[in-house]
Amino acid sequence: MPGKKKPLVVITRKLPDPVETRMRELFDARLNVEDRPMTQPELVAAVKEADVLVPTVTDQIDAALIAQAGDNLKLIANFGNGVDKIDVTAAAKRGITVTNTPNVLTEDTADMTMALMLAVPRRLAEGASVLTGDKKWAGWSPTWMLGRRIWGKRLGIVGMGRIGTAVARRAKAFGLSIHYHNRHRVLPAVEDGLEATYWESLDQMLARMDIISVNCPSTPATFHLLSARRLALLQPTAYIVNTARGDIIDEEALVKLIQDGKIAGAGLDVYEHEPALNGKLLKLAARNKVVLLPHMGSATLEGRIDMGEKVIINIRAFVDGHRPPDRVLPLRT
Ligand code: 8YV
């Protein structure tokens, strides 16, 4: 942008090198090379000064923070798809545009969902630990390490958006029958291609599935969507996989049902109070009832570079006076 003052862009976490290099070229980029999560006072200082803030899921961009923003702050270009940590309504009221990074992390997140879907019933983590543990492997046995078959089972997808659909495509190839619950029924062509069954009633779907995959965004409407009451509808042989957001499931209730043998297990990549982890979940992991990952759904180098590229495109479009491609609008209440 020759002749024009470069916008001050504060990036709250370390991003992949090619992204940071490009940001340095284009903007007055304030990087976080040490990748230490910013404290709330540091975030306040950032929003007072920046023209653009680039936060991630680890930053709480709530109404109190937005109220302290300086007049310069006109864009919050989130590095990530989910904007549950950003008060988009408060931002809009202050004339601050919010953008995110959809599409580019769909396939990676769907891959990780499949990985968890296989990991729990097929005892993947438990099996891998046999060879690296203290004890010597005694060798193969016909009745040892038996898991449960995936092929031919019923998968219920909660949230049939981009990621849910990408999960369905993969799961169909693994021989699962596809069922889904969504606010709106998807296009007939998509449903036909996936041979998917739509369930208007989430309760009825939950009661009949072998595996549940949570793929909806976290919004006030989806908070504890899988409540204690709904989780209790699941069959005792059912597994749950969550690569969306922790607070969509009542985690305490999930733990209790697994402890009591009322649900077979879970594969989780996200947690209700992330990064704090429920100690009871860790105990269940030690008993191989759950497989836990540290929010790795979109963690590929390619994905993170693509996300950075999207952030840059959104900032460039905005700074040049255009509508950024990935604008997030406040939820209608
Ligand atoms: C990201 C995610 O790693 O984009 C999302 O919504 O959950 C993750 O895949 C994270 O949000 C980056 O801020």
Structure description:
It is a single chain. The chain is an alpha/beta fold and 333 residues long. The chain folds into two domains: 8-103 and 301-328, Rossmann fold, CATH 3.40.50.720; 106-292, Rossmann fold (3-Layer(aba) Sandwich). Helices cover 36% and strands 13% of the residues. It contains 13 helices and twelve strands. The chain has a seven-stranded parallel beta sheet, sandwiched between helices. Helix 1 runs parallel beside helix 13 (301-319) and helix 5 (106-119) packs across helix 7. The mean pLDDT is 96. The structure holds 2-keto-D-gluconic acid (8YV). 2-keto-D-gluconic acid binds at residues 56-57, 79-82, 105, 297-298.
- Counted by DSSP, the helix tally is 13
CATH topology of the largest domain: Rossmann fold
Number of strand segments = 12
Shape: globular
Give the low-pLDDT segments.
none
Number of domains: 2
Kindly provide the radius of gyration, computed on alpha-carbon positions and rounded to a whole number of angstroms: 22 Å
Task: State the strand order across the main sheet.
Answer: 8-7-6-9-10-11-12
What share of the residues does DSSP label as strand, in percent?
5-15%
Please tell me the overall pLDDT: 96
Structural class: alpha/beta
> Major sheet, described briefly?
7 strands, parallel
Order of helices and strands: EHEHEHEHEHHEHEHEHEHEHEHEH
